[in-house]
């Protein structure tokens, strides 16, 4: 009760500050809990769903082999293995999607079909993607469940069709999309591989057709072998792979493999990138909130100096008054946090619904209690610790000093001074007020610099991504190119591949001017008996080298930083490269960037790869990558080539199924961050502005008594904030120039992008500063509305 | 016959206090004449300052009219009122009320900058000249916090004089000053009036009141007495003091 009246009175008299801090904490709570929920729940949920789907620590996709059962028995018999599960699948290298509005998409990417029954472990979504179906319908023959990514990638809704070819170039089967399933393995729109669920009967029919087609089939009957390592054995996945390689033939029959962590990395790449940026954003907001609280405390103590002196004269101790302040701010913080918790759940739910078609998962919207409470506790501790430190000066207030004059500002002549001139009087007065009261604007300037820095960071990320996601593509591509063409096998029946290539290159030269062309393909290879993606290139100078140099000789290779760290090797070290049955020693000549397989890859020269097997097989399958002088018509050229040559060639540009989704999500994220930034600027300007106006009302009364108009005084006030914002924006922009790339690098490294360099246009660099300056000026002008209420009568002493 | 510069008709100012109305000014009718040094006296709470600020447009009256040079000022818009304050009225308050982050010179000049009739150079010259006349020329470059109360008040008078106002309103201008500074300020105001400056001053100080050429006595929100006197002469100060004292006694001061 001792404090109740005072706390209530303080909140009433400083309701602006109270609401401001409450709003800041409310936004921080929502943002933080949303990030934590998405990040932690997504990881936990994805891991859980992979387990539910029966996947193990590592999955090997193997071709149909006669002695499959004995091979798997040998694997299961190993001490290092806990369990082995097998799933029959049919893999198609390409397929057609007949989306809404008659749109047909020819997809070059693997489609894994498998049988599904109600008892199977995959979740089926409700038709409107608002949740999981409790009692999903059984599939009928000719029906298929696909991931929601089909809707975002190909505009394919329920009732639309997908078509697959048993024989190359000849579509044989079509399936009607019955609904969507939650695919934790390849459900993300950002992944090229896709899974589809069909009935057992359809599966059998497909198998029969494939066997019937014999050599002409383009489909592949395969098995997914899910291996769980023995938890009692202290093995890394690399160790496990080595054991499997040494003791079984599994790796020799493997087409490709993914570990559980790789799948999680692929599936959650979007969440990880944006959670990282949001987390940095929340930290920036937190610092901003602390700065604003600091300013609020200082101003409040100055404002209530006399009252505090009187209360001390009445018997209140410094500690009592400090407790009142602590309680007051604690109430504001809790007032923001408590409603922020349920609202964050709604926000997460909303994000979930919006992102299901892109990420493919419906992550639970539950708040991770432990981490959330810990984080909120840290926020309370930081803010309250800051309040405690800042209120220390209350102890120095003596009743007599307070009553004699309070804590009025005494201006000393500053070395830095601004003239006051007739022309542009408002501006000069603003400069003078700014120079003489610079301490008051410190919080606003720090907030500006931080917000501009963060907006610059996101702006640079946006510039790096580009409207077509080129920056991201550059990170994922081993080498830079505009179009890649896979020509048919030279020795196969049909039109001569060399002739087609000649014709295509004539078209490309005429329409885009070929700058260069080279050969490239992706294979699987082993480094020190650990399997990785292997990029094979004829012109290794096109690799994006970060350290050292590219691989120039047959026995040299480059690898990503991730692989080097995983294997504990560096430039100059030797590693054993395995391709098929053969192994050779290679020297690491450099570290390069390629985010394929989340960075789990290495690169060799064409000669290096072919040295393992000089046969025709190893020489085939190269894509010819072209670099153009004029890249404006790449899409048109691709369409023209597809129309002209159909199945005879495979044309791709340097794009990726997930690019649009990432660019879209980045834009949405930036819009959200901009809105939050605007709210923060509004709150900061309102709080600091109202405190400054309160302090200056005496001077404002004088100015009005001299004949100054409210409008002129308001503009002078807004100019002050404009100047503060301008100067601090410059600091923010300079900071972003030096800190953006290292910071973005740290965040993107999680996703296998180990090198981020932004080269934004001048306007992109300056835009955040300009936006923040304009907002500061506009909000300061609005906040200065109180100037109208200040009357010269304030100077009257009755 | 003196011409009227300011006129109040049925001027009222009431405050609501604990549910009841407190009539501080109660149907005041008065005229202020050109070239007069008018002093308003009255007991504490009589409504002296309220009258001054109602007349000067600093505070809006609850009822009645105020005319300045034939123009009704009680209901002027903000822009018109601001123009009047910058060009026609000068204020000297009990506290100097200088803008704390402007030097004495800038405090004076900033008023001049609002007046379009003078160039910046002319404003600066006049500010320097006025500060010199008020004996604060040497302190012109100092901030209010760096000068004495008397110096600040002299700078405030210089500021009030900046745009050659039609009327200077002074509210207890010596109320916060010591004896020596009080005399200096009163001498300044007297000399300004001798030069033709109209002054309306509120005071409860007898020594200030004797500077008046016309005295008004306010009681319970009404002007209940007035007395005219010849211009002040320092040799006659004692006699004027006795005269005013007697008059105030008759007013039951």
Q: What does this molecule look like?
A:
The complex is a heterodimer of chains A (798) and B (253). By secondary structure, chain A is an alpha+beta fold. Chain A has 24 helices and 20 strands. In chain A, α15 runs antiparallel to α22 and α15 crosses α23. Chain B has 253 residues and is an alpha/beta fold. In chain B, α3 packs across α4, α4 packs across α5 and α5 runs parallel beside α6. The radius of gyration of chain B is 18 Å and the shape is globular. Chain B starts with a strand and ends with a helix. The model of chain B has no long low-confidence stretch (mean pLDDT 89). Chains A and B meet through α14 and α22 of A and α1, α2 and α3 of B.
Beta-strand content estimate of chain A: 15-25%
Adjacency order of strands in the biggest sheet of chain A:
2-3-8-5-7-6
Going across the biggest sheet of chain B, name each strand in turn: 6-7-8-3-9-10
Low-confidence stretches of chain B: none
Mean pLDDT of chain A: 84
Our Rg estimate of chain A from Cα atoms comes to 33 Å
What kind of sheet is the major sheet of chain B? Answer: 6 strands, mixed
Radius of gyration of chain B (Å)? 18 Å
Features:
heterodimer, A: 798 residues, alpha+beta, 3 domains, six-stranded mixed β-barrel, six-stranded mixed barrel, 24 helices, elongated, B: 253 residues, alpha/beta, six-stranded mixed sheet, four-stranded antiparallel sheet, 8 helices, 36% helix, 27% strand, globular
Q: Outline of this structure?
A:
Chain A is an alpha+beta fold and 798 residues long. Helix content of chain A is 52%, strand content 19%.
Give the helix/strand layout.
The complex is a heterodimer of chains A (about 800) and B (about 250).
Chain A: H1 4-13, H2 15-52, E1 58-63, H3 68-76, E2 81-98, E3 104-115, E4 123-124, E5 143-146, H4 149-154, E6 161-167, E7 170-182, E8 194-198, H5 200-213, E9 219-229, H6 237-247, H7 250-253, E10 254-259, H8 260-267, H9 269-303, H10 305-313, H11 318-359, H12 369-390, H13 399-405, H14 425-436, H15 442-465, H16 470-476, E11 483-487, H17 497-512, E12 514-527, E13 530-537, E14 545-548, E15 556-559, H18 561-567, E16 574-579, E17 582-592, E18 601-605, H19 606-610, H20 616-619, E19 623-628, H21 634-645, E20 649-653, H22 659-705, H23 710-749, H24 762-783
Parallel strand pairs in A: 3-8, 5-7, 13-18, 15-17
Antiparallel strand pairs in A: 1-9, 1-10, 2-3, 2-6, 2-9, 4-7, 5-8, 6-7, 11-19, 11-20, 12-13, 12-16, 12-19, 14-17, 15-18, 16-17
Chain B: E1 4-17, E2 20-33, E3 37-42, H1 48-56, E4 63-68, E5 71-72, H2 78-87, E6 89-92, H3 104-113, H4 120-133, H5 149-161, E7 167-171, H6 179-194, E8 198-202, H7 206-209, E9 214-219, E10 222-228, H8 237-250
Parallel strand pairs in B: 3-8, 3-9, 6-7, 7-8
Antiparallel strand pairs in B: 1-2, 1-4, 4-5, 9-10
């Amino acid at each position: 009760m001792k404090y109740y009246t005072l706390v209530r009175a303080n909140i009433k008299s400083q309701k602006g500050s109270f609401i401001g801090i409450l709003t800041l904490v409310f936004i921080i709570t929502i943002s933080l809990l949303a990030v934590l929920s998405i990040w932690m729940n997504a990881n936990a949920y994805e891991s859980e769903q992979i387990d539910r789907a029966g996947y193990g620590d590592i999955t090997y996709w193997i071709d149909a082999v006669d002695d499959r059962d004995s091979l798997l028995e040998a694997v299961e018999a190993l001490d290092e293995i806990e369990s082995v599960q097998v799933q029959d699948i049919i893999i198609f290298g390409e397929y057609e999607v007949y989306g809404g509005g008659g749109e047909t998409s020819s997809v070059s990417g693997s489609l894994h079909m498998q049988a599904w029954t109600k008892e199977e472990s995959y979740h089926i979504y409700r038709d409107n993607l608002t949740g999981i179906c409790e009692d999903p319908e059984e599939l009928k023959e000719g029906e298929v469940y696909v991931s929601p990514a089909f809707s975002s990638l190909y505009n394919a809704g329920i009732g639309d069709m997908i078509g697959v070819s048993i024989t190359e170039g000849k579509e044989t089967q079509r399936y009607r999309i019955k609904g969507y399933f939650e695919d934790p393995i390849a459900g993300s729109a950002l992944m090229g591989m896709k899974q589809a669920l069909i009935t057992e009967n359809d599966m059998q029919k497909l198998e029969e057709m494939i066997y019937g087609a014999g050599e002409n089939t383009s489909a592949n009957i395969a098995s997914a072998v899910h291996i769980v390592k023995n938890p009692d054995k202290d093995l890394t996945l690399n160790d496990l792979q080595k054991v499997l390689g040494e003791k079984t033939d599994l790796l020799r029959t493997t087409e490709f493999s993914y570990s559980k962590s790789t799948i999680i990395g692929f599936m959650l790449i979007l969440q990880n990138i944006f959670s990282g940026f949001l987390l940095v954003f929340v930290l920036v907001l937190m610092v901003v909130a602390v700065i604003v609280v600091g300013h609020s405390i200082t101003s409040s103590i100055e404002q209530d100096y006399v009252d505090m002196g009187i209360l001390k004269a009445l018997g209140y101790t410094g500690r009592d008054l400090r407790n009142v302040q602590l309680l007051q701010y604690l109430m504001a913080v809790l007032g923001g946090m408590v409603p922020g918790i349920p609202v964050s759940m709604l926000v997460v739910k909303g994000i979930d619904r919006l992102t299901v078609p892109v990420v493919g998962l419906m992550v639970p919207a539950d708040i991770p209690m432990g981490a959330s409470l810990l984080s909120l506790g840290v926020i309370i501790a930081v803010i309250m610790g800051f309040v405690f430190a800042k209120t220390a000066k209350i102890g120095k207030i003596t009743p007599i000093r307070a009553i004699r004059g309070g804590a009025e500002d005494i201006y000393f002549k500053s070395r830095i001074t601004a003239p006051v001139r007739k022309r542009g009087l408002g501006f000069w007065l603003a400069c003078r007020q700014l120079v003489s009261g610079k301490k008051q604007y410190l919080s606003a300037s720090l907030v500006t610099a931080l917000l501009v820095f963060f907006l610059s960071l996101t702006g640079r990320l946006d510039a790096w991504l580009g409207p077509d996601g080129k920056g991201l593509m550059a990170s994922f591509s081993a080498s830079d190119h505009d179009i890649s063409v896979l020509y048919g096998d030279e020795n196969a029946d049909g039109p001569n591949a060399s002739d087609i290539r000649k014709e295509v290159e004539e078209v490309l030269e005429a329409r885009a001017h070929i700058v260069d062309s080279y050969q490239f393909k992706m294979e699987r290879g082993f480094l020190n008996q650990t399997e990785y993606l292997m990029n094979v290139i004829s012109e290794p100078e096109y690799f994006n080298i970060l350290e050292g140099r590219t691989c120039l000789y047959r026995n040299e290779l480059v690898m990503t930083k991730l692989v080097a760290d995983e294997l504990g090797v560096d430039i100059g070290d030797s590693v054993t490269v395995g391709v098929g049955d053969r192994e050779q020693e290679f020297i690491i000549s450099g570290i390069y960037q390629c985010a394929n397989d989340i960075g789990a890859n290495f690169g060799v020269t064409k000669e290096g790869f072919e040295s393992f097997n000089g046969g025709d097989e190893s020489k085939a399958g190269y894509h010819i990558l072209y670099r153009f002088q004029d890249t404006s018509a790449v899409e048109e050229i691709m369409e023209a080539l597809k129309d002209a040559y159909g199945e005879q060639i495979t044309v791709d540009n340097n794009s990726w199924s997930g690019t649009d989704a990432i660019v879209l999500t980045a834009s949405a994220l930036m819009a959200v961050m901009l809105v939050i930034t605007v709210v923060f600027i509004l709150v900061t300007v309102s709080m600091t502005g109202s405190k400054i106006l309160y302090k200056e009302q005496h001077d404002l009364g004088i100015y009005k008594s001299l004949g100054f108009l409210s409008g002129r005084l308001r503009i002078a006030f807004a100019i002050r904030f404009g100047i503060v914002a301008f100067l601090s924006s410059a600091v923010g922009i300079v900071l972003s120039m030096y800190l953006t790339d290292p910071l973005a690098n740290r965040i993107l490294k999680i996703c296998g992008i180990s090198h981020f360099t932004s080269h934004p246009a001048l306007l992109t660099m300056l835009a955040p500063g300009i936006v923040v300056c304009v907002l500061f000026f506009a909000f300061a002008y609005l906040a200065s509305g109180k100037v109208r209420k200040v009357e010269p009568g304030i100077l009257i002493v009755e | 016959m003196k011409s009227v510069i300011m006129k109040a008709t049925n001027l009222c100012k009431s405050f609501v206090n604990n549910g009841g109305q407190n009539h501080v000014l109660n149907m005041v009718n008065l005229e202020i004449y050109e070239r007069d040094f008018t002093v308003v006296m009255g007991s504490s709470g009589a409504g002296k300052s309220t009258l001054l600020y109602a007349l000067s447009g600093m505070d809006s009256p609850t009822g009645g009219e105020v005319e300045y040079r034939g123009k009704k000022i009680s209901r002027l818009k903000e822009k018109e009122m601001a123009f009047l304050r910058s060009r026609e009225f000068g204020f000297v308050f009990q506290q100097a009320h200088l803008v704390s982050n402007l030097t004495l010179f800038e405090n004076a000049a900033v008023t001049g900058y609002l007046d379009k009739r003078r160039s910046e150079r002319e404003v600066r010259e006049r500010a320097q000249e006025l500060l010199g006349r008020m004996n604060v020329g040497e302190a012109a470059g100092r901030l209010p916090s760096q000068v004495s109360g008397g110096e600040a008040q002299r700078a405030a008078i210089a500021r009030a004089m900046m745009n050659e106002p039609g009327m200077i309103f002074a509210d207890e201008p010596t109320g916060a000053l010591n004896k020596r500074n009080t005399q200096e300020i009163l001498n300044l105001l007297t000399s300004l009036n001798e030069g033709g400056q109209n002054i309306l001053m509120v005071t409860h100080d007898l020594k200030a009141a004797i500077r008046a050429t016309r005295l008004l006595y306010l009681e319970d929100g009404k002007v209940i007495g007035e007395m005219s006197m010849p211009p002040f002469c320092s040799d006659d100060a004692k006699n004027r003091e006795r005269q005013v004292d007697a008059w105030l006694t008759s007013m039951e001061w």
